[in-house]
């Protein structure tokens, strides 16, 4: 952290860590490079004349030199009319070949997501109700796990429930993090100073990501209840019979995808942007299966390997793997195992639930009658 530069002693030439700047890892949209969030920084005044004078000062003293790879301009925009807060990060990437590649990242959030005082009573009541219900289900499942022991983990649906609960706990912790950060830094920010709310906005973004996973798992858990219907029993039985036959072909498909991804990266990685890495090549080949192909780009890049790789991948995926999947599923659908599935429809399922409920009511009434009779005797 020793001062460097042509004017040592000024704080603008002191390297600051990511924790000092309260920044995280930043991904350049143009180059895909990762920046650690550390570096040199200074705050610009809000007056135009003073800001231009400061920029000229930094330019004349080579604040940006040949070693600079990116310049980040951060500012906060707050609209009190619609109660929205936006963090803008303008990125100027400076590649070794020269020039500047601009991009911008915007993170917008309503104030009710980061300030408790902005949350409505209905929203707080809904969130508290959700927390109470989730905690109740977690306690019930923990009690069941305690009674059953390790056999509790043999049920895939129980594992799905545990994963859903764990994701919800993470989402709840991320939901509370912005409240703590905003209360510590204060809001609204002073008009003549920059307050970095990056950590609070990062927590909001991650909360949205985790809560999206929670919503997905919660809807998948509905299959646990409707699997008692006949058509769902047919589906699960079919997939169960076909799993062992489909698994080897899935491995073949993964190997083919990996092989073609490496081949496309080596052949077209320097010419076609969508094949710049093996991972991006795999995603691009998946898009080819959906019809979003780049045949014209491959043709322009290489008149021999472009058509050859394109035909090889489409033939291997469509004509071989797709037909094998279909044949295995058709064989499983026509097997005798499905005949053992009981013909239970929705009405029969509902009637079964009602009969069990009526039996429990009758048993409870009989126990109460016997208890009353013993008391009178």
TrEMBL record:
This is Polycystin cation channel PKD1/PKD2 domain-containing protein. It comes from Hemiselmis andersenii (Cryptophyte alga). Residues 119-333 form the Polycystin cation channel PKD1/PKD2 domain. Its main location: membrane. GO terms for molecular function: calcium ion binding. PANTHER family: AT14535P-RELATED (PTHR10877:SF183), POLYCYSTIN FAMILY MEMBER (PTHR10877). It is found in: Membrane. It is a multi-pass membrane protein. GO terms for cellular component: membrane. Belongs to the polycystin family. Residues 13-110 form the Polycystin domain.
């Amino acid at each position: 952290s020793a001062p460097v530069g042509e004017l040592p002693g000024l704080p603008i030439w002191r390297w600051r860590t990511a924790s000092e700047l309260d920044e995280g890892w930043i991904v350049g949209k143009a180059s895909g490079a990762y920046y650690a969030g550390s570096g040199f920084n200074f705050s610009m005044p809000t007056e135009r004349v003073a800001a231009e004078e400061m920029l000229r000062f930094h330019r004349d003293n080579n604040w940006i030199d040949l070693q600079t790879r990116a310049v980040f301009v951060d500012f906060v925009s707050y609209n009190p009319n619609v109660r929205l807060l936006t963090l803008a990060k303008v990125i100027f990437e400076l590649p070794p070949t020269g020039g500047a590649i601009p991009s911008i990242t915007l993170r917008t959030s309503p104030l009710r997501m980061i300030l408790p005082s902005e949350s409505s009573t209905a929203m707080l009541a809904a969130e508290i109700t959700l927390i109470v219900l989730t905690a109740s289900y977690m306690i019930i499942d923990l009690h069941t796990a305690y009674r059953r022991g390790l056999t509790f983990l043999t049920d895939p649906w129980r594992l799905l429930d545990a994963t859903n609960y764990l994701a919800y706990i993470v989402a709840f912790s991320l939901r509370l993090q912005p409240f703590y950060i905003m209360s510590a830094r204060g809001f609204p920010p002073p008009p003549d100073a920059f307050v970095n709310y990056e950590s609070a906005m990062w927590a909001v973004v991650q909360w949205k990501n985790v809560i999206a996973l929670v919503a997905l798992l919660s809807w998948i858990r509905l299959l646990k209840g409707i699997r008692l219907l006949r058509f769902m029993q047919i589906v699960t039985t079919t997939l169960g019979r076909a799993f062992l036959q489909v698994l080897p072909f899935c491995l073949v498909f993964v190997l083919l995808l990996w092989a073609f991804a490496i081949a496309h990266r080596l052949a077209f990685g320097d010419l076609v942007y969508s094949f710049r890495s093996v991972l991006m090549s795999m995603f691009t080949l998946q898009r080819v299966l959906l019809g979003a192909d780049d045949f014209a780009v491959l043709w322009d890049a290489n008149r021999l390997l472009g058509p050859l790789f394109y035909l090889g991948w489409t033939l291997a995926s469509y004509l071989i793997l797709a037909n094998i999947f279909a044949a295995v599923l058709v064989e499983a659908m026509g097997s005798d195992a499905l005949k053992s599935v009981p013909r239970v429809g929705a009405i029969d399922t509902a009637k079964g639930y009602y009969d069990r409920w009526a039996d429990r009511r009758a048993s409870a009434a009989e126990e109460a009658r016997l208890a009353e009779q013993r008391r009178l005797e």
